[in-house]
C-alpha cells in the first residue's frame, strides 16, 4: 500500500482542550491497522516537552552539547534535536516516509485536512464552522455543518471514511 519514498497524506485532529482528541486517535489506530493502513502520529505541544531522563546517557550527551541525539534499540528509536523554529507538518512528514497516513493532534493553523472533535459542553459551535479544511466532524451532537459526522463511538466508520477519503 505504501511507497517507501513517498510522504504520506496528513489529517489533523483538532478540537478544544479536553474534547477527546487523544482518546479518539488511540481508538482509531487499531481500526486503521485492521484496514492495513500503516499510520504515524505527530503531536503538537506548544508548551515544549522533554523525553530524555536526567542522568541517562542520551540526556548526558545532549546536556554536554550534542545538537542531535539518537537512541536506538532493536525495537525502537528516538531522536532529540535542538530546533530554531516550530517545525511545520511538511517538515516533520519526512520522518514518516514509507507510511500510508499521518494523524496529527493539534496543528489548527496548518492548511491540512481536519477532523474536529466537537463537544457542545465545551463550546457552542465547532472551531472550524464553515472552514474548507474541515473534512469531517466527530460528535454526538448535530451541528448542521455540511461535512460527514461520526459519533464518538463510530470508530470503524471514521476509519473507513479516512481510507476512502485518502484513497488508501
Characterization of this structure:
With 168 residues, the chain is of the alpha/beta class. It folds into 2 domains: 10-46 and 86-165, 3-Layer(aba) Sandwich (Rossmann fold), CATH 3.40.50; 50-82, no CATH class. It has 4 helices and 8 strands, in the order βαβαββαββββα. It has helices at residues 21-34, 57-64, 89-93, 155-165, and strands at residues 10-14, 39-43, 68-72, 77-81, 101-105, 114-117, 134-138, 149-150. The strands form 2 sheets. A 6-stranded parallel beta sheet has the order 2-5-1-6-7-8. The chain has a two-stranded antiparallel ribbon with strand order 3-4. Strand 3 and strand 4 (77-81) form a beta hairpin. Helix 1 packs across helix 4 (155-165). The longest helix is centred in the first third of the chain and has 14 residues, at 21-34. The N and C termini lie close together (7 Å). The mean pLDDT is 88.
- Helices, by number, come to 4
Largest sheet: 6 strands, parallel
Which overall shape is indicated by the principal axes computed on the Cα atoms? globular
How confident overall, as mean pLDDT? Answer: 88
Class by SSE composition: alpha/beta
Bin the strand percentage: 15-25%
Q: Count the strands?
A: 8
CATH hierarchy: architecture of the largest domain = 3-Layer(aba) Sandwich
CA radius of gyration is 18 Å
User: Which regions contain 5 or more consecutive residues with pLDDT less than 50?
Assistant: none
Question: What is the CATH domain class of the largest domain?
Answer: Alpha Beta
> How many structural domains can be distinguished in the coordinates?
2
CA(first)-CA(last) distance: 7 Å
Helix content: 10-25%
CATH superfamily of the largest domain: P-loop containing nucleotide triphosphate hydrolases
Strand order of the largest sheet: 2-5-1-6-7-8
